[in-house]
Each structure stands twice: as C-alpha cells, then as structure tokens.
What does this fold into?
Amino acid sequence: MPVFCITADYTPAALTEMRNNPTDRRQAAEQFAEAAGGKVLAWYGTMTNGPGVHVIYEVPDLPTGPAMAGVAKSSGAFENVRVTRLFSMEEVAGFRKRAGEIAGSYKSPTG
It folds into this structure.
C-alpha cells in the first residue's frame, strides 16, 4: 500500500477554534483515513512555518493520497499543504537496482 506524508500549517481560524475547543485532532484524521480505506501511521505536531501537522498515512492506491490532501486543504483549516509520497527501503533498493540497469544508456547534455 502506498504511504504518504501530508505536512500542513493550520490557518488562524483553525488555531482559534482549537484553542477555544481543545480536542485530539488525531481521532478525526484516523476516521478520515479509514473512510478512504487507509490508516494513519504517525501524527506529529510541527512549528516549522507555524503550528501545523505531519501526518503519515497508508492508503489503498496512489490516487487516494493526493485526494485526501485535497479534501483537507479544501476544508479551510490548512494552508501550505505539501504531499510527499514515501517509499520503503525495499522500494528504494529496487529504484537503485533499476538505475544501475539503465545508467549506461543515458546521454548527458553536458557531454
């Protein structure tokens, strides 16, 4: 199953609502992922660009990951949404093996 990481900052309106009504947002994220056929693997708060989250989740297929990010963004609760497809180390090893197989056929534009 594909794994994605959504990184996003909360909007000021979302921060105000969460301050006025503190709740565990992870539960909402887990319910959303389950409804999409996926699963939250990790949930972290972040302060990099502003209060926000990093959510790592597993989904049944490639289109579901970006679709989930789009739904979250369109809710109005997030800004600076970034979606990253994560690869297992087994997948990375396969990429490296394949690169070795095709490297000799690449012609660089610099000579």
Observations:
- Residues 89-102 form the longest helix (14 residues).
- DSSP finds four helices and four strands in the chain.
- The beta strands are 3-10, 39-46, 52-58, 78-86.
- Helices lie at 12-20, 25-35, 64-74, 89-102.
